[in-house]
Amino acid sequence: MPGLPKKLVGAVARVRATHLGTGDRCMAVREAEPAGSLQEVKEAGLDREDLLAIYRHLLITRGIEERGHILYKQGKIPGSFYTGRGNEGAAVGVGTAMGPNDVGTPLHRDMGVHVVRGVEPWRIFAQYMGREGGPTRGRDGNVHMAVPELGLHPMVSHLPAMLPVATGMALAFRIRGEKRVALGWFGEGSAARGDAHESMNLAGVRRLPIVYVCDNNQWAYSTPTYLGYPIEHVADRAAAYGFEGVVVDGTDVLAVYREAKRAIEKARAGGGPTLIECLTLRMEGHAVHDDAFYVPKDMFEQWAEQDPIERYRAWLRGQADMTDEEEDEITSAVKRILNDALERADASPLPDPAGLEKGVFASQEDLDTPHHK
Amino acid sequence: MAERTYIQAISDGLREEMRRDGRVVVLGQDVGVYGGAFKVTNGFQEEFGPWRVLDTPLSETAIVGGATGAALMGLRPVAEMQFADFISCAWDHLVTVAAKQFFRGGTPVPIVVRLPSGGGFSGGPFHSQNPESSFAHIPGLKIVCPATPEDAKGLLATSIEDPNPVLYFEHKHLYRRIKAEVPDERYTTPFGQARVHRPGDDAIVVTWGAMVHTASEAADELQKDGHEIEVLDLRTLIPWDKERVLEGVRRTSKVLVLHEDTRTGGFGGEIAATIAEEAFEDLDAPVMRIAAPDTPVPFSPPLEKAFIPQVDDVVKGLRQLVEY
Q: Which of A68, A141, A247, B311 is the most buried (most CB within 10 A)?
C-alpha cells in the first residue's frame, strides 16, 4: 500500500507546533502488571505508614457504605442508596496517587477518593440523610457530593457529564501553566456517550494534564460489557485520541496506585493525558433496589475471591509484616470514627425549607473561595 | 463616544474585558485564526495568543462543559456557539451541570455563552432560532438579550463579571444593521433593569432583542395617528424587570407582549401571566401577544417573512389595542 500523504506540511505544521507543541503520541494499550514486593511499592513512592493509611482508607470506605446500607434499611435515608462495593481498591488507589493541588470529579462508586482526600465521614452520613451538614446541605442526595476545598467537585447523574468538566479544569491548568492535574471518572457504560469522546478528543488535541479513570465494573445497571462496547478494553480507545491506555486490575489497590501515579506525574510533566481502565466487578446491584439477578452467580463467586480489601490485607501481612496489633488498632480506630460520625450526622439538622430559594444564584462574595483563585 | 455597529460593540466589549482581566478566555469553533464565523473575535488571537483564544474541535459539549470546569478553577471563560441553534448539543452541560452546580455544591460557575441568534436572512431552521425561553425555564441560568450597541457592550461586561452562567443572546439581524453612539470607556449595564426605548402613555410594548426595533418602527406609524406607544426593552429575561413592566401596564392600561421566538411556551406567556396575576384590575384590554407561529423557522423568504413578526403585524396589533 502506498504511504498516506503527509497531512501537516509547511506553515500549517509550524502553526500546530507553536500552538500545541510536538511530541510522540502513544498508540498502544498496555495491560498493567500486578503489584509486587514491598521494595517495588516503596520505589513507587509509598512508605509503610502510607501502606497502613491505604488499609485504613479501604476500611473506612467500605464501612461508610455498609453503615449507610443499615441507615437505609432503618428508613433514615430518603431516595435510593448506591455503593461501590468491589471498587474500593480502584478508588483508594487513584485517590492516593493524587497530589495535594490536583482536582477530580469522582462518581458514585468512588467513595474511596473522598475518603483519601479527607472528607469527614460524618458529612457523608449527613449527605445520605439529607441533612444540613452534608456537603450539598440537603440540596442533592446520595453520592452526588464533594468538598471543593479538597479538590473534588460533585458529580451529576448524567454520566459521563463530568468528563468535559474535568477536561476544562485541566485546560485551566494548562492555560495558566500550573503543574496541576485533573482526574475525570467514568464507567464503562457511560463510555458509550459523546461526552467521553468529545472530552478525550479535546484533551488529546491540546495534550492536557488530565487522567481519565474508567471504573469498569462490567455492568451498566443490567447491561453487560459486550452490549456496551465492541472492543476488548475501553482503554483501547485512548489510541484514537493519541494518548496511552492502560488496563489494570481494579482489585489490586497497589497496582492501581502505581499506574495512577505514573499517569498523573506524566501529565504534570507535560506528557498529556492517560486513560486508565480499572477492571472490577460491581459486587451489588446498581442500587439498593436491584438484586442483580442478571449477573451470573459464578461471576460473583469468582470476583469475591479477589475482594480488594481482603487481598490487600493479605499482602500487608505477607509483604509488609502487618502485625495483629497494628491490624486491631486500625480496625478499632475505623469503628470509632464511624460511630462518632453517625452520631454527629444524626445531630445535624434537616435543612430549613425557608432557605430553599436562596442559593440558586451566586453572588460576588461566593467567588471568594480557594477553588476560584 | 463613537458610532459603532452592534457587532463592533460586542467585539469592543469582549476585547476590553480580556485586556483588563487575564482570567477571561474565549473558546469555540473558528474563534481563533478565523476570528469567529461573524468576526466578533477578529484579531483576538494575535493580541491574546492561542491559549486565551482557543480554537476547539467541533464539540459543543466539550466547549460548554470545558468552560464550566475552567470556571470552577478560577477562569472566566466566554464560550462561543457558532449559532445559538447549536446550543442544543450542549444542553446537558448548561442545564445539568452549570445551572445546578452552585445550588448543589456551593461553587459558582462564572461562564458566558455567546449565542448568535435570530432570523431575518434565510438562515433556515438551524441558523435562525431564538431559544431563550427554553433556558429561562432553568433555575440557575441568566438570560441576556441586548437590543442596542450600547447595551451589547455594557451587558457583555456585566455578563463576564457575573458569578453565574450567563447566556448572552446576540441577535444576528442587529449585527451590522444597527449603529449607534457607544461610550468609549468601560461601563457595565445592570441586569434586570428594563430600558425605555421610546416613551409613550397610550399603550406599552414589552419586548427584547431585534423586536425592540420592529416595535419602534410600528410605534412611528401609530404616532402618525396621534398615539404615543411606549417601547420597553427588557434587556435581560432572567432576571426580568417585573416592577417596571407592571408600572407601564398600570400607566397605559394596554399592553402588547412581542417576541421573535415561537408563541407556545415563549417567555411572553410568563410576562402575560404575571400581568394577569398582578395588574388585572389596571387593564383596559386583554393582554395581547404577537410572536412567531409554532413552526420551525422556514428558509424561503416569503415563508420567513410570515414567520418573523413584521412591522405591519405590530402596527395592526397596536391599532387594535389602542382602539379597544
A: A68
